[in-house]
């Protein structure tokens, strides 16, 4: 099998900041409550008329520039999102057209907060098999389009953003994407969901009046599942690959809540220095948190050639997983 290397990372975050002070004026909450319960200080929100494909396009254009890739060279585009511009056409098609990737195929992938990891491993198979040479994986979500501005349980958590990586064949099989473990568990589906707007409950005046087109969540239950799952995926990857916790250079968990990340890190025995945290600035942007955090880690020089890193996620579905990477640069 051909080794799969991540040869570039990029991100895009909208300019508008929604701070905890802004939220204090909109709902019954406080900066102190949000900071202590979640670690979030602010999130980014799209401008009017800006949506998932626009953010994804910005991220991919940066990625192509950084990796000196021509759009015609791209074989496959997978866009992980739960907030596509429209049900169809797929937002991957909108991105493909905007960047001029005229030789690519692609699709949207719905894996909620685990979407980027599911897309990463899906795309990697086409490199591994020798079928493709350049695969673009995107995580992008416009959560501000589906959170209830009047629901203090959810609006404080989420933000908008996009991140993208380029996958290419490598030579050394000791580098790149080394291992993964993914699962879905539909028994947790009703704990985090958007009840209306799909084929079961198409949009109507009633669904809108009942605010069913917004995210509904049992925060406490999701919290517990998230800690347990992300810790388990990470432990499994470390054990299976005979890597001790202290030898892991960087741990990038899905950025859902700072307390969740601390609990996961402590279960595995990781120090604060090993954990990548961006949630204070961007909140939870669902499929985008991991590629954004990875790009930030690369920019900050927190990951160098030969270092190992684990990305792990948990999300609506339930979906979850982990990926072990040895960085090549
Ligand atoms: N501001 C002030 N008070 C708030 C509030 C807010 N924004 N949101 C909830 N509260 C209140 C609740 O109404 C409750 O009040 P009560 O005790 O009078 O009923 C109290 O704070 C405690 O609520 P609770 O839900 O138990 O808080 P929590 O410590 O569990 O924190 C979350 C809530 C949502 C931050 C937390 O459960 C969480 O992060 N869950 C995981 C969510 C997640 O990551 N989802 C995405 C997964 S990919």
Q: What can you tell me about this protein's structure?
A:
The chain is an alpha/beta fold and 329 residues long. Helix content is 33%, strand content 24%. The protein has 10 helices and 13 strands. It has a 5-stranded mixed sheet with strand order 1-7-6-4-5, with helices on both faces. The longest helix is centred in the C-terminal third of the chain and has 22 residues, at 219-240. The protein is globular. The protein starts with a strand and ends with a strand. The model has no long low-confidence stretch (mean pLDDT 97). The site of coenzyme A has 21 residues, from helix 2, helix 7 and strand 12.
Bound molecules: coenzyme A
The total strand number stands at 13
Structural class: alpha/beta
The percent of residues in helical segments reads 25-40%
Strand content: 15-25%
How far the N terminus sits from the C terminus, by CA atoms, comes to 21 Å
Overall 3D shape: globular
Helix/strand order: EEHHEHEHEHEEEEHEHEHHHEE
- Rounded to an integer, what's the Rg over CA atoms? 19 Å
Question: Strand order, biggest sheet?
Answer: 1-7-6-4-5
Low-confidence stretches: none
> Main β-sheet, in a few words?
5 strands, mixed
Mean pLDDT, nearest integer?
Answer: 97
Number of helices: 10
